[in-house]
Amino acid sequence: MDRIRQVFFSLIGIGAFGFVFYLVFRDYQRFMIRFAVVVAGLILIVLLIGLIGRIRDKAVEKKRRKPFKP
Question: Containing domain of residue 40, as a range?
Answer without folding.
Answer: 2-65
